[in-house]
């Protein structure tokens, strides 16, 4: 029987070298656009820490880090103006924020440091997980390399995307950060940590059953407790896979004791779920949750998002059943099939979040059943010196969107895109407000892009600044447009300012409201303060 200690001991020096090489390559790939974006700064363009993969969410992460850095331990939502908000505990952002506080590093640098730190941990965890099912070292190495650098076919179908009622329909590898490992490590370390915790939970749970040691189930519960504390929706994947695996073993062995492993896992991890259920009693938390719809797009976009691996995974699954090897790989099969059921769970608004993790069993099912044939093809091509051709084919079929994400960000940085850089006017405006607008204040900003950036730079809230984080956004945008067009009646404007404690206004034109005083003009921005 394997133990966690033995699994680690069995990794040879050669394999550790491979783990280090994959980690270094991954770090270089995710850091190159980041470093280049900093290099492209000049006296009139200042890097804001964004990249093109879910760029609107990064200021939210920087806001969280800044709040902890400023001395808080619980978080509020700075992208919406409602006062007296419920303060949330988030262990991940607490940890990153405390690191930023101790080191006095900026949120942008802090987030990237954690990107780097978590990569080798994830590589090792993935390698350990595969070691539970595979002895062939070449196969393990191939799977790890593909898992970390592959993507779907989204780049080839970039124009095969459209919006329908503000709902993006597009290959998932283009825009869903959780859908594959590279997109996760590229986007944000809290997604990387989710991968680590999901896989490590499953490693411990499998070891608990293999070794008949309930202590491993306790450890699995503790790992899940941390995971659910900041990503509670993953309880569906963890619980479904763990319970179904126990059910399969019970039907085979007729031993009810097997379910103790699941009960221990569920009981120990449940406090995090209960905490989030309690937080939903707050009307603002509940409202934000209800409008944060992350639905899974139609299956064709998911298939394109997983690319060439999906049809081979289905073929590999059928081959495993035909060869009656399903018992050996039953855990992976349950994870693969169960996850695909969950991502289309009816009346569940976080469907798309549950895409995270599917790539691992999918890649296994797409490669492992065909390894003998793959080895033969490789040897034949090596004899006639066609390995470079094979490498190009693999890149074109297995990693086009990975290349696209890196290349797109380098091009945006080269062109100093306004999505990546603050102008001198925007930076000076932020600097002006940084000493004036405090945590108790709200800023009403006409420039939508600047409104999304402000909470990452200031302790103040914004009236409206994010598609999902700003409560009742459509109504707020309507009020905002009426205010800046000066068609909102004076008494309604004053009530709006009092209700949301709006202290400062950033306008792109002069305003004629007599209850406002212009404090300064910075280029085309006019900054007003409400008269006391």
Summarize the structure.
The protein has 532 residues and is an alpha/beta fold. The protein contains 23 helices and nine strands.
Please, how many helices? 23
Give the spatial strand order of the biggest sheet. Answer: 6-5-7-9-8
Which spans have pLDDT < 50 for at least 5 consecutive residues? Answer: none
**Based on DSSP secondary structure assignment, what is the total number of beta strands?**
9
Largest sheet, in brief, is: 5 strands, mixed
Tell me the β content: 5-15%
Q: Report Rg.
A: 25 Å
Overall structural class, as computed from helix and strand content, comes to: alpha/beta
Name a few traits of the molecule.
532 residues; alpha/beta; 2 domains; five-stranded mixed beta sheet; two-stranded antiparallel sheet; 23 helices; 7% strand
Task: Provide an overview of this structure.
It is a single chain. With 532 residues, this protein is an alpha/beta fold. It folds into two domains: 4-47 and 106-410, no CATH class; 421-530. 60% of the residues lie in helices and 7% in strands. The protein has helices spanning 4-9, 13-39, 58-69, 91-103, 107-131, 137-149, 181-187, 189-211, 214-230, 235-253, 259-279, 283-291, 299-306, 309-322, 330-342, 359-367, 371-383, 387-398, 400-414, 424-434, 448-457, 473-484, 490-500; strands spanning 45-47, 162-164, 167-169, 421-423, 442-445, 461-462, 502-507, 516-522, 525-530. The chain has a five-stranded mixed beta sheet. Strand 5 (442-445), helix 21 (448-457) and strand 6 (461-462) form a beta-alpha-beta unit. Helix 5 (107-131) packs antiparallel against helix 6 (137-149). The longest helix has 27 residues, at 13-39. It is globular and about 80 Å long. The N and C termini lie far apart (73 Å). 42% of the residues are buried.
